[in-house]
Amino acid sequence: MKQQMASGFRWLCVLCFMGAALRHTSDLWRGGWLPYTSFPLWTDIFWTTLTFLDPLAALMLWLRPRLGACLALAIMITDVGINGFWAIQTGLSGVLGVTTLMAQTLFLGAVMGGFPLLWSLGPPRVNKV
Question: Is 37 helix (H, G, I), strand (E, B) or coil?
Answer without folding.
Answer: coil
